[in-house]
Amino acid sequence: MIYSFNESRLVTVWSGFSTKWYGELLNNEQMLGAAWTSLRIAAMSATTALLLGTLASVALVRFGRFRGKTLFTGMMTAPLVMPEVITGLSLLLLFVTLAQSVGWPAERGMTTIWIAHTTFGMAYVAVVVSARLREFDRSLEEAAMDLGANRLGVFFRVTLPIISPALFSGWLLAFTLSLDDLVIASFVAGPGSTTLPMVVFSSVRLGVSPEVNALATILVGLVATVSLLGWWVMRRRELQRQLDMRRAQAQ
């Protein structure tokens, strides 16, 4: 981050303070295009992984034992322990087979990367949300049902607001993993769908450019800002929840 303000092109030699590399970065259409592609894929895959991972967590925690639960649990946790090379190669073979048999996907691109990132992001979301659901106080849901709420209303008005910190954490984790992924994206990407890690990796093989330092500084700043904002929001909600509970106990 310090050397992103270095005037020299040599990233290890300090020659004076300058912000010219940020200007160079703004003129680098390839890197900016890759960054925009990565952000879109990360947002889409994190949102999809959040939906599927939450549903899987509810099934694993709330439905008790059911036929195929062991297999379902193994399939959900497999991406956590499987090497990325194996995951990327397996998905590549899957997409090639589907293209030859049914004609979809016609070519690899953002859609295939989105599916691939959702596949492993969903596993991380399921772990985070499942841990929160196991610690959930079921008496709150029972009290809401005693007051006339149906199961669907209880889930959306009681369960989801209480586990929202876990949902937010799972989404951020899936977003970060998608934005950071290089190996799997290299297998399933196609022409015109180059992600930011792929561009950075190809550029640093010829030497680290000051533009990469500038880009890394911007990303660190954005992530830090979002993390602090999320922590502030969750802390306010937790303090409000504790205040409401004390008020309810006082009454």
TrEMBL record:
TM spans (from-to): 41-64, 85-106, 112-133, 154-174, 212-233
InterPro entries, per the entry: Bact_Polyamine_Transport, MetI-like, MetI-like_sf
A Pfam family hit: BPD_transp_1
Keywords on record: Cell membrane, Membrane, Transmembrane, Transmembrane helix, Transport
CC terms in the record's Gene Ontology section: plasma membrane
Membrane topology listed for this record: Multi-pass membrane protein
CDD domains linked to this entry: TM_PBP2
Residue ranges the record marks as coiled coil: none
Signal peptide segment: none
UniProt entry tagged with the keyword Heme: no
PANTHER family referenced in this protein's UniProt entry, alphabetically: PUTRESCINE TRANSPORT SYSTEM PERMEASE PROTEIN POTI (PTHR43848:SF2)
Protein name: ABC transporter permease subunit
Lineage: Bacteria, Pseudomonadati, Pseudomonadota, Gammaproteobacteria, Cellvibrionales
